[in-house]
Specification:
With 75 residues, this protein is mostly helical. It folds into two domains: 36 residues, no CATH class; 28 residues, no CATH class. It starts with 14 loop residues before the first helix and ends with a helix.
Length: 75
């Protein structure tokens, strides 16, 4: 008779907690797949910007970064 244990409730874990679990339970494919799904979901929400192709584009990226930082500081 083997020892049974209850699996954690992965859906109640934060991404950080789930990542820590996966790192210590490397054979748990279910937990790994859930973690990958969370990263995919988060990346789908990100604003995508095209790669800068000119110096003008690079300058615009710098402006956008500064605007974003300013907005974060005001929040």
């Amino acid at each position: 008779m083997g020892i049974s244990y209850m699996k954690p409730e992965f859906n109640k874990m934060s991404k950080t907690q789930l990542r820590a679990y996966v790192l210590t339970h490397k054979d748990d494919k279910e937990a790994f797949n859930l973690l990958v799904d969370r990263f995919k979901a988060d990346s789908a929400k990100q604003v995508k910007h095209p790669f800068p192709k000119s110096l003008e584009d690079v300058a615009r990226v710098q402006e956008l970064v500064h605007e974003h930082i300013k907005n974060l500081e005001e929040s």
